[in-house]
């Protein structure tokens, strides 16, 4: 399932490192694997009675010590300073809603379908960029939007009762929410570092989870707690590997590897939850991936064109 705490598309504050694309690719593959395993752990925990608000708390709370250790050993506490607390609050609020919807979709739908639909977020981000950022969208990106929407519709199968309607609607809402997060990150990422963005979001969602605990908290056995701890720690490791991948390889090289999560979700859904992949899901997923890759390629092409025209940028 998509990383619920995505990074800015062009992270302004990632310190440049030696150009080692193979290392960047390996880190991104590890990141995609971590997020897929995290999704499996969360879905297994949901079958044992864990609610979405609890997932928010434990996914972020158990990952917070790992994140803090990374900050202390890496960029240092100074990297957490911010001059835009309200921007972080807005980003955290949108991200919190998006994460709740993402985890709820994970509860209601098979793993492959939930992952595929929520991976349509770039489609909605393109549309939102027109209205929120006043960006111009050309025919290539509109073609990508059409491909992504078609893929989602094929997975949803309107009129069919194969998937619960509530789950489908929640997954679509989650994709829109993740698109909203991406738009917000384009703005805040211009002045704030990745360490600050990820850290303060993790803190905010942990606090929100604690506040919701009296209403949604349940008693759990040792196995369930193990799943929740694993989800938190594996999820934050995936986040850190995603961050590190951007230090060693260009975004255009590593970002498309995120779509391997759909493959992992399909495989794990089959092996762990006995949800055999169906032809419509595979076809829809292929279109969603194609639309996402076309969007990524076009943005990379346009960025290179701008830099070539303005070498001072």
Automatic annotation (TrEMBL):
Recorded GO cellular component terms are:
membrane
Primary location group: membrane
Report TM segments: 62-80, 92-111, 117-133, 140-159, 165-185, 197-216, 222-242, 249-272, 278-297
Q: How does it sit in the membrane?
A: Multi-pass membrane protein
Compartments reported by the entry:
Membrane
Q: Which PANTHER family match?
A: ACYL-MALONYL CONDENSING ENZYME-RELATED, SOLUTE CARRIER FAMILY 35 MEMBER G1
Annotated protein name in UniProt: Drug/metabolite transporter (DMT)-like permease
Native species: Sphingomonas prati
């Amino acid at each position: 399932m998509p990383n619920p705490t995505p990074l800015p598309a062009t992270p302004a504050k990632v310190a440049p490192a030696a150009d080692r694309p193979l290392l960047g690719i390996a880190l991104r593959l590890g990141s995609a694997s971590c997020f897929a395993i995290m999704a499996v752990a969360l879905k297994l925990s949901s079958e044992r009675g864990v609610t979405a608000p609890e997932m928010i708390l434990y996914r972020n709370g158990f990952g917070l010590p790992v994140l803090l250790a990374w900050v202390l050993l890496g960029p240092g506490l100074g990297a957490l300073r911010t001059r835009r607390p309200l921007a972080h609050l807005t980003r955290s609020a949108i991200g919190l809603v998006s994460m709740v919807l993402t985890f709820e979709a994970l509860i209601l739908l098979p793993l492959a379908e939930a992952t595929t639909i929520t991976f349509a977020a770039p489609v909605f981000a393109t549309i939102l960029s027109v209205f929120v950022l006043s960006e111009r969208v050309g025919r290539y990106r509109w073609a990508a939007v059409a491909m992504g929407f078609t893929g989602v519709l094929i997975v949803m199968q309107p009129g069919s009762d194969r998937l619960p309607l509530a789950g489908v609607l929640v997954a679509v809402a989650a994709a829109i929410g993740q698109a909203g997060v991406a738009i917000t990150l384009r703005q805040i990422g211009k002045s704030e570092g990745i360490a600050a963005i990820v850290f303060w979001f993790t803190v905010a969602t942990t606090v929100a989870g604690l506040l919701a605990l009296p209403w949604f908290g349940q008693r759990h056995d040792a196995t369930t707690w193990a799943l929740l701890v694993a989800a938190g720690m594996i999820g934050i490791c995936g986040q850190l590997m995603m961050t590190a991948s951007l230090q060693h390889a260009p975004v255009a090289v590593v970002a498309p590897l995120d779509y391997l999560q759909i493959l992992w979700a399909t495989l794990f859904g089959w092996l762990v939850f006995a949800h055999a992949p169906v032809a419509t899901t595979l076809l829809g997923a292929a279109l969603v991936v194609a639309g996402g890759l076309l969007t990524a390629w076009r943005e990379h092409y346009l960025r290179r064109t701008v830099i070539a025209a303005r070498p001072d940028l």
